[in-house]
Amino acid sequence: MLLSIITLNYKKPELTLACIASAYKQYQKEFQNGTIELIVVDNGSGDGSVETIEKAIKKEQYAHVNLIANTENGGFGKGCNLGAHKAKGEYLLFLNNDTFVKDKNLLVMAKYLQNHTEVTILGGLLRNTDGTPQASAGKFYTPLKALSFLLGLQRYGLSDKNPTTISQVDWVKGAVFMIQKNIFEKLGGFDEKIFMYTEDMELCYRANLAGYKTFFYPDIMIVHKEHGSANRTFAIVNIYKNLLYFYKKHRSRGEYLFLRSLMATKAGILLTAGKILKNTYLTQTYEQALKAL
């Protein structure tokens, strides 16, 4: 088997089924002949998701689409690691359940990895629902990069920029993240101490330390409903928490303290602004962010 697609579900069965349907529409032949499989890991939803997805798989007669019913929600990394353990493909593709596959180039990406054995990880271009590109690759979070991120410069294209040709990059987004299975296992998979967000960057960082290369593939059409599987406050709080964890694990003590100070300053300013403006979103989000520090 060439490719195993792994996607997670947590209380979003309709979103997950739409993702599956989009992939199956493009690759029906490859699913049926066993070139591709798709593994759905339900992260302990407990809301009927398992039954809903199982019923749809049976009704649509999806070949090589399988469901793993996890008993707990251990986060993105742990769920993906479970799916990877069960996967049979030579390459793994971690695909967010809030994405929609619009062309057949996932298979082209897998064959690119086959033909370029010096490349270990390959990410793809994500697009918004209006067709505009999302930042899908980035540079490792050095103190300067972390500062630009905290200042929100990435939204203006001043921080993370997508290459327009197949190029080596520092890291790629986990929403469409392809990797050689044997190297994924050698690296120990995603860090399960990271519940959600930044686990993609952290794995690419470890891969880079081990001498493996990460590349970006722009010629693909994947629509990504950003934050479709989680709310924005949850995302911000976890990014704060996980960036600090990354610095504690991989960077110096001085850099860790510098980043923590930057985060505390930003969160404090936005919390104060939220209280002055009586903005519930800002107040609640940055109260939680400060607690995460």
Describe it.
- By secondary structure, the protein is of the alpha/beta class.
- It has two domains: 3-224, Spore Coat Polysaccharide Biosynthesis Protein SpsA, Chain A (Alpha-Beta Complex); 232-292, no CATH class.
- It has ten helices and eleven strands.
- The strands form two sheets. Strands 1, 2, 3, 4, 5, 6, 8, 10 and 11 form a nine-stranded mixed sheet that branches.
- Helix 8 runs parallel beside helix 10 (280-292).
- The mean pLDDT is 94.
CATH class of the largest domain: Alpha Beta
Structural class: alpha/beta
Overall pLDDT:
94
Can you identify the CATH superfamily of the largest domain? Spore Coat Polysaccharide Biosynthesis Protein SpsA, Chain A
Shape by Cα distribution = globular
Taken in chain order, the helices and strands follow as EHEHEHEEHEEHEEEHHEHHH
Distance between the termini: 44 Å
User: Which spans have pLDDT < 50 for at least 5 consecutive residues?
Assistant: none
Strand content: 15-25%
CATH topology of the largest domain: Spore Coat Polysaccharide Biosynthesis Protein SpsA, Chain A
